[in-house]
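Schema walkthrough. Field components (list of strings):
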Amino acid sequence: MIKREGVVAHRKMIRVAAILTILVLMTAACSSKKDEGTGKPKTGGIFRVQLKTFRWGGGGFDPSSTYSAYSWTLYSNLMIRSLLGYRHVAGDAGNQTIPDLATDNGTVSSDGLTWTFKIKPGVKFSPPINRAVKASDIVYSFERIATPSVAAGYSFYYLSTIVGMQDFYDKKATKISGITTTGDDTISFKLTQPTGDFNYRVSMPAAAPIPPEVGKCFEKQGEYGRYVVSTGPYMFDGMAKLDPTSCATLKATVPSGFDPSPTGHVKLIRNPNYDPATDTKESRENFIDGLTVEANSNVADIFAKILKNEVDGEIANETPDILQKATTTLKNQVHTNEGDRTWYFSMNLTTPPFDDIHVRRAVNFILDKAALLKLAGGSLSGVIAGHYFPPSILAGRLKDYDPFKTTNDAGDLEKAKAEMKQSKYDKNKDGLCDPGLKACGPIYSPTEQAPPFSDYIPTVKNGFAKIGLKMNIAQVADSYVPANKPANNIAFFMGGGWGKDYGDPYTFAFPLFYGPSILCENNSAYSLLGETRKQAKACKNQYPASGSVPNADKKIDDCSALAGEARLDCWAELDKYFTENVVTWIPYRFATNVDTVATTVTKYVFDQFSGYTAYAHVSLDTSKQVGA
Amino acid sequence: MLRYIVRRLMWVGLVVIIITMLTFLIFYVIPPTDPAISFAGKNQGPEVLALIRKRFGLDQPVYVQYGRFVKHLFLGDEYGWPGFGFSYASQSPIRGELFKRLGITLQLAVGGAIAWLIIGIPIGIVSALKRRSLTDRAAMGFALFGVSAPVFWLGLMALYIFWYRLHLLPGTGYIGFGVSPWQWFTHWIMPWLVLALLFAAFYARMVRGNMIEAMSEDYIRTARAKGLSERRVITRHAMRSSLTPVVTMFGLDFGGLIGGAIVTESVFNLRGLGSWVVDAVFSGDIPIVIAVTMFGAITITLLNLFVDVIYAFLDPRVRYS
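Field assembly_structure (string):
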């Protein structure tokens, strides 16, 4: 009997849901709206969210370590305050930092190497700590980032940037020499090099203050997540019951407001120590009295409950059949916004045939991107990508830039063949990769088992076959696993997708295209751009006979040092360089985020920073809530 | 009989050891994902990966890991007995969570089992006794429908009709008995019936076949010839022999459900073992997968033994030495 209940039925269900999803997305495309936030706000009510499953990653909701956008939504909107924060609105304004815990945007020394912030008076930690936030609490947060056992998810934004932080990480120092405090309210960061996006880096949840008296009890990965002490308007339910006298007394009780298991829950209530006078309405309006997040394994049911006002919002990545009804009957409840994410296929620069730029250009020309977009759900799922960094984080630059544009985005065989003819893998110059060559296939490529990736396979296979490339595409449970090891020499990876961490292209350039970012395990820089022969030897991956792969490290360093418009111009130029001269990806879609809320939500705002609902600004009509 | 039970218990021990080896081999030696990488997050360097591997005990040789795994399983670990370790994702002990979720799965399995026995057995008997009648055809039509309809489809349809459209029953989720006995019961009606429908259909077909066969046996004719009433012939003679295979099936089916009725739990958003283990598989939380696998395997093995013993009481021809 278990057989009937098992995998086959589950897969069928997923397939049906996927087909329905596509129908839904296509329908919704006609009726969705982009939002900046309007409505009649009311105070009160508990905002009830359901999602399919919790995925906090290894961080387990610890702000020092968690590398999950939804965690950041909860932190930034509701729970914790960094020196700089966000407006929590849609569009470009939502990607710009504004003062949060700090009195202003900070001062930068003339050499760009020292950033100083002054902390607002009157900001207190939630129970059970109940004391004012001090500059030393922020120092401690940075020490946590540089503590290997905490496994800070994005420590690479800080370790080599702040003087002495790498030494602290390596246990060569007991203090981070580059972070100093003056009194309880002033903190300075000395940087190793000018870093134009440092404002963004101090806005991240990991950079928010953590009281050492709690944090030091939880310095293993994922432990602190259950005990996060708030500085924002909301906190975990049950925090007031904790006894912070010692680590033992603290650990004796677990706050009821957070269960990190995959089918767990979050329950946030108002933080009695939060003083709205220390905050701005531009950043947080705090209409709701609290928020609950629960897992619901049935995605269709989540949307059914939204339709019946039994749930107010969803974080279900799938949008099943019931959303179709939502888009027609509740037109204003479906919200679409730019997702600041690029979906791409990655080519390995060290592995034939993609070690040849003409082959890389040829596949960029041949691919039917329109078909891929349709398979992903049509225009509601995003727009066709012509380059690497989403235009939304380039302040609109390169919006129409696409050097590989083809008629109707359906691919261009002639242009592809013309490129292939110039490659070393087409010796007879017929525009086809030479059949006898091992490089021409079968080319092993892992991709995800689930749609839309599994649906892309025929488009890719058939397209590439037209220029003589034979693909062997394997559907695997987690295609990241084989792809993240350079030693596997994966020539073509179809599971690539990258979203910004904050509103600056550095969050793409550094982890994905910077040579030193390449790791022998757990590597996200799949293309191995900038890999040296020494790295290749250490990682045991093959290296081109030519003796080198393209390198953009210097260009990335140059852009990273700039600020303002010059910085954005530099990133735009780098994007063009990647797209035309390196050609390590086939970018095919800039994603859209789709968010559905119940009619109980009288004010909806999208948070561009985290890519989800801006809970800091939403309001509810509690009279419409069913079962609250 | 006692000797038989002891011998079977020893076999159970051996089977469990073999299951631990296979489970360990599948999930630790040839895992689909690297747990350290799954839980480190992207771009973590070798230092962090090494720390995580050390914390998870993955830095030890395979035989050491296996030894510790078996030791904890049988002797308990820091979180109690049996020692299932901690979840990589939630960093919390598995044992408590497993028993909490087992409660939900048991409620689903017990309620569903009662429902399918109540539905399936009478339908099978009536159908056998009224062969080729309208009742028989209707009953077998029901069985065909039950066997053919996928559980997820049945569940979604039931939700759509009885909750979404007719508002007769509450939707998904679980309400504790202590919160409201009535709500607890109403929340369980759909999961129980949906789960039961599939099994009831199987049981109806099986009982019908067995009954038809039994009714044509010589001992039934003898019973009738002795002047026993038809009711007594059916209940004392035909049913007894035709229901013994049901006991075997029931033990296996029920034991299987203890491992989690994955689809039913997922459709009705019941936080039992099934949905838990599915999430754990997708997130690479191996200790949870192993704990549920081991728990399910041991339960099925013990239920099998239990069924064999019961069998001897039900069927006088079966005797153990």
